[in-house]
Amino acid sequence: MKAALRPGLVRLAARRSLPPVVLAFAVLLLVALARRSSTVPAELPSNLDPAGVRRHAVWLAFAALFLPYLVHSGSRLADRWRRRDADWCAPTACGFAGYALSSAAGTLLGALVLLGVALSLGEMGAAGANAAVWTEDIAHPPLVLAPGDGARTFELGPLGTRGASAGAVLELHATALPREGPSADLLVTLHDARGAGASVRARIDGPRTLRIPLAGQAIGPVELRLERTGGGGVLAFPDTPLAVLVPTASPRRAGLALALRFLVLLIASLGVSMGLGAWMRPTLATALTLALMLSPLVHRRIPALPGSEGLATALERTLEGISSPYPNASVTLGSLAIFTLGVAGLVRGLARGRDRA
């Protein structure tokens, strides 16, 4: 039989994955969150962006409530077939491949509708003023500077055109551990092979985020120098990656970047849940899929689904009006490959069930 899309099954799968009552609940909940987070208090910390607070609330609700629901919808496709659901199979008699392909497309269509609702409501109202693009993370080991320690220098490598962008900065995280005093003075210097660079002096009395200008750091390797300039406590630099931030002319880019990240994650997670759901109970398939989605929060070395790595950080940076980078081509292709394998696993699982019957 031909493995062609069946429009009737596609529409039915979309309605099953996103019933009107669920869509209405999602719209009402996300509208309420967007409006409530729009009335931010006057004492909002200076590093937070009002529009970013709204985006964060909407997308956090989407991730916590509706993403698991959509994953569970994908894991139930095989179970619906096995139960000979009359409504589900009524539009047309088709083979396993046609059923799997049409049902997967319909479920993904329902997910896209809900994703579009979240994107639209997250971008309601003001666009925000602190727009910047978080273009890259530069890993570095944790470091401690005790009183009497000499300066430390790190080779960051060439930053390319990112370092030459007007207003570009390098973000560094530091904190003071009180031993010989409550604070410590720090001099951060950034320079390239030509000697051009910038420096920032700061008194560190707790967790601080320093931003060093990068304009002109486009050619050759770049060195970062950290030096104490006085007494005080011990300075600690956690292994939080250094971030390159570049201003953007599109403040709404943060919402679009999050939507694309969630889309890549949705495609991969639906593929996994569909494939697993053909061989085990839907609840177990959903639980395993969600565990893969959350694995980056547990340990960096645990395999994760495409799109899940860095998603929590991207959500957190949204509070400051900072946009995450768009998913790269390899991550997107990996997500599509997993979705394709999931459809193939669903077809094979359905055929196996028929052979046993």
Record keyword descriptors for this entry.
four-stranded antiparallel β-sheet; Jelly Rolls; 357 residues; alpha+beta; elongated; seven-stranded mixed β-sheet
Summarize the structure.
With about 350 residues, the chain is α+β, with helices and mostly antiparallel strands. Helix 3 (about 50-75) runs antiparallel to helix 6. It contains ten helices and eleven strands.
Q: What characteristic shape results from the CA principal axes?
A: elongated
Q: Structurally, how many domains make up the residues? A: 2
> Which residues sit in consecutive blocks of at least 5 with pLDDT less than 50?
none
Q: Count of helical segments?
A: 10
Helix content: 40-55%
Give the SSE order as H and E letters: HHHHHHEEEEEEEEEEHHHEH
Strand elements, count? 11
Tell me the β content: 15-25%
Structural class: alpha+beta
* Average pLDDT reading: 77
Which sheet architecture does the biggest sheet show? 7 strands, mixed
What gap, in angstroms, lies between the N and C termini?
A: 20 Å
Radius of gyration (CA) equals: 25 Å
Oligomer: single chain
